[in-house]
Structures are given as structure tokens and as C-alpha cells.
Amino acid sequence: MSGMQLEKNKNTNFDSTAVKLSTKDLKATYGKVQALKGITMDFPEKRVTAIMGPSGCGKSTLIRCLNRIHELTPKAKVEGEVILDGVNIYSPKVDPVAIRRRIGMVFQKANPFPTMSIYDNVVAGLKLNGVRDKKKLDELAEKSLRMSFLWEEVKGDLKKPGTALSGGQQQRLCIARALAVEPEVILMDEPCSALDPLATAKVEESIVQLKKEFTVIIVTHNLQQAARVSDFTAFMYLGKLEEFGETASVFENPKNELTEKYITGKFG
Amino acid sequence: MIAVILAVIPLLLILGDVFLRGAPAISVGFLTHLQKPPNVSGGGIANAIVGTFTMVGIASLISVPIGVLAGIFFSEWSTTKVSTISSFMNDVLTGFPSIVLGLFVFVIIVLPTRQFSAFAGGVALSFVMLPIIARTTGESLKLVPNTLREASMALGIPRWKTIFRIVIGTGKNGLLTGILLAVARATGETAPILLTASTSIYFAKSIFQPTASMTVLIYNYATSPYSSWQTQAWGAALVLILIMLGLNLVVKLTVGRNLSGKLEL
């Protein structure tokens, strides 16, 4: 499905790329704490967008709002709009379950289902949504594992429990699991923060490949990672979007003083 | 260390005593024959064994589904007020004297129907089992990490499927253990059955007739003046304890196997 050309928000700094997902004055709260104070931005289709910022800036909350996972937390509330292909996913007519099939997510800590084999983990989203066709399951399992660069390491051990893999492999298993339901957008919430440099490199390799088919949005507080994998970078501070643009220009000549300080390591 | 020994000694003494006194009473006939009058040789407790299983079965049919659903509610909706209040009430019910539960069922079922029955006994036992199952289900599901619920929901799996397939699938060992605990507890209960199923010296023809049970039989025989019945009371006690040990063993083995096995989707 191709993104529609929408009326662009003022924070958009890309012209040739279609908008897949955008937010309009998005506000999120946990009880009385306001984590997002009105975020308006566009995410380009089939590109990697990195969201960075110091801890507590609201970057994780932002992507948890994009697939309506935020509202599952007790006392969490969302205001504003998130628009996927022209439709506000917070409209009362939209089923959040259907939205989550189109917008997949990979979490900070690898969380394979502990009672399932590697294979069952990958196809869990398909099977539990009623796909029974063995051939289709096998095909999608292999395709997803190849895209997350795990296939070569596990193809002989698909029946082994998912939790028997190493930490980095488990995270790539979780990426494969998210890919298998064939979403359009993949959200990643600091996917490498618990991994060693070698495992991180493999996950990054996979992310760069993913943008051929998916719109990828990745939260990271690793500056080098944002620079390596992303096409666009957003910088957030205290629940606000401070800067957003092409990664090269954000890193080379940041327009915002805060961004510059963050990138040069003066705070964060 | 001394505390451990002090705790184990009474258990070993009871087990040893029941075994020594009960073993002479046990034979194939003891397990397969009906009860006989005092001081008549032979005679068994077959009807009491069947009666106990029938009533625990009825109690399980009632309490397992309701208890598991209540436990899911305690765990998955733990932040709601209704859940907090009902969880507290459930804990109160756990500590209820079982004779009061028996009395309650006596009033609501036995009196209106003018009939002691296995059904009434089963209902009384279900009140014993229900809070245990609800509590252990709730506690073991709360141990399932929230990240798994989020992982499942993020795959576009609906909430109810997330709970029944992912959460229960992950916490099922705790669930099974809780159900076994409840079954063991119900098997050993006397007071609720005494007031609801009464007893009988025959096999019950239906679940709506007075029904014998091992515990009530032990109570009646042990308090009788006849030495043959007293010996049989020890025998029945031994059978009861062996059944419970067996139940524990079966679940330990199956739970152990499930740990390494995979979840069937």
C-alpha cells in the first residue's frame, strides 16, 4: 500500500517522499504526568526515522502512541491525532487491534513467548489471527527470519524454544515475529539498548534492509546508531519535538541549540 | 535446621502411624467391596471412594471454570476497583470455616429439596475450592511479565486471545498447581460433606441421593465402638493419604514435562 500525498505539516523537511504516518498535536499523559506536549510531525514512507533525546523526553511514549499500545497502560490517556494513510487511528470507528496488525512493534527488551519454539514465535501473530495454511506459515516464517538476518543461524533448530537463543538472536527473533504479520510500519523502541556491539551491528544491518519494504521508526539514545541507520532524525526534549529533518543535516548543522548541545554531548 | 526437623517430625509420625495401623486393613476387597456391618469379616469402602471422587468431580466442574475466570479478572483487571474488592472478598472466603460453607449449602439445597445428595456435597466442596483456584490463578497470571502481553497485543492479537493463549499458556503451571491444591483440599474435607451428602452404605444410584465419602466414613468408623470398623477407618485414612500423594506426584510430573514442552497454538 502506498502512502498518500497529504497536506504536509510544517515540520516536514522532505519533499520527494510520501507521508506514511503523521501526528497532529499529539498529547499523552500518564495519570497527571504529561509525557507528550503536542507533537506534530510526518513520518516518510519506506524510510528509517530515528527519534532521539535524553531519557524521559517522551520518545518511547511517542512511538507507543503510534500503534495504540500506550493506552493499555493503566491511567494512560492520548489526545490529538495519529494519521495512517489519511485515516486518524484514534477515531472511534477504528479498531485498535486492526491498527496494530498494520503497525508492528519491537520492544526494548527481547520478549519472545517463553513457551513457544522459534518457529511458533515467528508465526504466533499469524496463527492467533486464524491463519492455518501450513505452506503460507512456512513461507512467511522463512521470509521474516531472512529479513531479520536470523535464518542462517536457526534454520536447523526451528523447533527449539525461542528463549534458548542468545540475547541478540532473541531480539532478531522478535523482529521476525513483528514482520511475519506483514505490517506496513515497524516501530522499534530502543531495540539495541540491551545488546552488545556485535549483536547491535546485526540488528542495524536488518533495519537498513527493512526500509525497502517497510516504514521504520526507531527510538534510540545512541547517537551513532541514529546516524548509521536513519534517513530522518527527530530530536525531542521534555515532551516536545525540538528538531526534525534529514539525518545528515540534523547532525551536521542542527538549527536548534538544544539539539546541538545534545549531539555534541553537552547534556543528555 | 532444628526448625526444619521439628516441622518434619510430626508429618513423619503421622504418616508412619497411619501406615502401620492402616496397612493391615488394606486388601483388594477393601477397595472393591461395599461396607459391611461391624464385626463381620470382609467389607470395604468402595462406595466411599466412588462417592468422594463423584463429589470432588462435581465440585471441580463448578469451581474450575468460575475460579479460573475470577483469577483472570483479579490479574488482568487488577487496577479496577471491582477487581480489588472482589479479590479481597475472595481472600475472606478462603479463610471461611468449612462447616459454615456446609451449613450454607444445607440451607439452600438440602432443606428445600429435603434430600442429602452428592450434588449438594459437590456444591459445598466447590465453595471450598473456588477461592483457592481464583487466588492461585490470579497470582500465577500476575507473574507473567507484562512485556509478553504487550508483545502479543502489538501483533494485533485481540485482548481475549492474548489472555487465553499467551498469558494462560505462560502461567499454566501455576494454574495447574492451584487446581491440584484445591482438589486435594476438597478431597480431605469432612464438615461440608457431613451436612450436605450425609452418608450411605450403598453405591448412590444418582447424584441426587445420600452418598458416602471417605472422610465421613473415617469419622463414623473411628468414633464407633467396634474394633473392625476402627481398623477400617485407619485403612480408609491410608487410602486417602495415598490418593493425595498420587495426585501431587501426577501433577509434579506433568507440570515438569510442560516446562520443557511447547505451547500448542
Give the largest chain-chain interface (CB within 8 Å): A-B, 33 and 26 residues
Return residue spans of chain A where pLDDT drops below 50 for at least 5 consecutive residues.
1-8
Structural class of chain B: mainly alpha
Main sheet properties of chain B: none
| Percent of residues in β-strands of chain A | 25-35%
Radius of gyration of chain A: 18 Å
Predict the CATH topology of chain B.
MetI-like fold
What does this structure look like?
The complex is a heterodimer of chains A (268) and B (265). Chain A is of the alpha/beta class. Chain A is built from ten helices and ten strands. Chain A has a six-stranded mixed β-sheet, sandwiched between helices. The longest helix of chain A has 14 residues, at 134-147. Chain A is globular, with a radius of gyration of 18 Å. In chain A, 51% of the residues are buried. By secondary structure, chain B is an all-alpha fold. Chain B has a single domain (47-259), classed as MetI-like fold. Chain B contains eleven helices and no strands. Chain B is globular and about 70 Å long.
Give a brief outline of the structure.
The complex is a heterodimer of chains A (268) and B (265). With 268 residues, chain A is α/β, with parallel strands linked by helices.
